[in-house]
Amino acid sequence: MAATATAPSAKAPGSSAPRNRNDTFNQKDKPAQVRLSNITAAKAVADAIRTSLGPRGMDKMIETGKKEVVISNDGATILKHMSVLHPAARMLVDLSAAQDVEAGDGTTSVVVLAGSLLIAAEKLLKKGVHPTQIAEGFQYAAIEA
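Request: output the structure for the sequence above.
Response:
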């Protein structure tokens, strides 16, 4: 009687690590987790800026890497001095910089608006709406506006 050897599994029982490279693409919940992580990071940037908006907006005190203290309620200045590492949150910083270059104003408003759109998208995702339908809805709204 010959004994058959089975290859040991690269995945421990109960772990969420993929067995091989192809298993990564077969996980159904991974894209949803990545989407929610991106939304959460971007919302954190928008929430940090939101309180500086308007005539009753609060000033922010920021300590730079060179130990300098900057006090401002200008969204572009605040975001320029924040060290944002997450790629999705970094997009909001870049959005603010682009708004500053194009119009010279509205840097805080554009970040707060983008944050609000992400909050709406997150609610729709939790209801089970497909991300493509959400994106198409935002594009349609932009055309109608």
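The chain is about 60% helix and 5% strand.
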